[in-house]
Amino acid sequence: MSAETEASSAGPPETDDGTEPRPPFMVMFGRYLTEANSVMVTVYSLLMAFVIGAILLIVSDDAVRGTWSYFFSRPTDALSASWDVVSSAYVSLFEGAVLNFNTLDRFAAGTADFGDILRPISETLTNATPLVLTGLAVGLAFRAGLFNIGAQGQLILGMLGALVIGFTIDAPAIVHLPLAVLAGAIAGAAFGAIPGLLKAQTGAHEVISSIMLNNIAALFLVWAISTEFLHSETRSELVTRPVNDSAVLPRLLGPLGAHLRVNAALLLAFAAAILVWWLLSRSTFGYRIRAVGFNEHASATAGMHIGRTYTTTMGVSGALAGLAGAALALGVGSGGVTTNTALEYGFDGITVALLGRANPGGIVAAALLFGALKAGALSAQPAVPVDISTLLQATIVLFIAAPALVKALLRLRTPRGGLVTLEAKGW
After folding, report:
1. Which one of 250, 327, 353, 367 is least enclosed by Cβ atoms within 10 Å?
2. pTM for the full predicted model
3. What are the start-end ranges of the H helices in 144-250?
């Protein structure tokens, strides 16, 4: 065997200190792209969701579907029609959520205000604000191995708590507004602590108890709005009294236009995300949350009180969801609260937490994405089916929750340490 053959069979050359040289950047980047790590699984999940959405847009359009019946005779007809329907739908989503190019042209021509340009972004941020808070609520519970599926009920109680303080107290805004926000957080925390306490004392699974509490909160909302205490004095439909002006969250872009709805709740949501990050990574309580979520038996052996951790974690989780309810109650101004004000923000928070991998930064990014999908779908009516937003969200969550499926479909390599998944104990 020649010297060159021996050198090539001996593997990569070693450096002076005896270690193998680091591969080139492009080689490392290529390996990262073909690995089923948490970042690439998230990216590929988004891409595949939009591909599936495009296929369904094509299939659901009668005219486009008809062009595929003679694809082999004139393939350009089918491809062109498919591209037109998909591109127009996704451009409409983008324009409704980020920037409308027609409005930009009108602004350049002097027929539109700067506030009109900011309207899509304002709608995205308005929709994302409660999603950030409910996503943080679910994500925090995930870190303790708990599945807080009751964020919707906690949001409703927080909304009612903020509403009651909002119209019953007469005080300056500097006092009234913080009190109303605090009332929402306390009401959500009290309601959220119930599943944690039941799990700690009786072993009742938090998913079952929180689902039941969601129903209780929804029915309680219907009853509460119909009472003389909460029902509007000037309107016959099922709507509450308005909160006082001193308890209304100020609009961040109000001077640029009354139609820009984003308000100070956005800053509250970002502050909550920073607080949760600090809580999990820098505090003793956060260490207990992560330890119990990783291994409750080892944590108990180390002297940690598992039941108390469950209760307090669910309480803090409920407080975050309650803040989302306060943002909804205090952001509607004189309009009051109806049974539809809460929408499905609590349940959407589960998908946001999954997409964000229960990480505060990831949750904020996921909430902004879902807020953009909601705003874009509503603005693009009737050109784009409103269900396309729900479809994309559901498909994204499907792939995020099943990284092994993404790995198998794209033939990705298993990362060092295995696939990363979010799990709740007890199933």
Report:
1. 250
2. 0.87
3. 151-168, 173-202, 206-226
The residues, ordered by sequence, that sit 6+ positions from 388 with a Cβ below 8 Å of its Cβ are: 53, 56, 57, 89, 93, 377
Report d(CA 250, CA 261) in Å as an integer: 10
Q: What is the DSSP letter of 319?
A: H
Sign of CA dihedral 320, 325, 330, 333: positive
* 8 A C-beta contact, residue 156 and residue 221: yes
- Helix, strand, coil shares of the chain, percent, nearest 5, are 70, 0, 30
Question: Is the distance from CB of 261 to CB of 378 less than 8 angstroms?
Answer: no
pLDDT tens for each residue of 20-54? 677 787 878 888 888 888 888 888 888 998 999 89
Distance (Å, whole) CA 322 – CA 161: 8
* CA atoms of 293 and 296, how far apart (whole Å): 6
pLDDT of 13 strictly over 60: no
Measured over the CA atoms of residue 176, residue 181, residue 185 and residue 190, the dihedral's sign is: positive
Reduce the DSSP state of residue 84 to 3 states and report it. Answer: helix
Residue pair 97/372 in contact by the 8 Å Cβ criterion: yes
The closest of 233, 227, 221, 247 to 341, measured between CA atoms, is 221
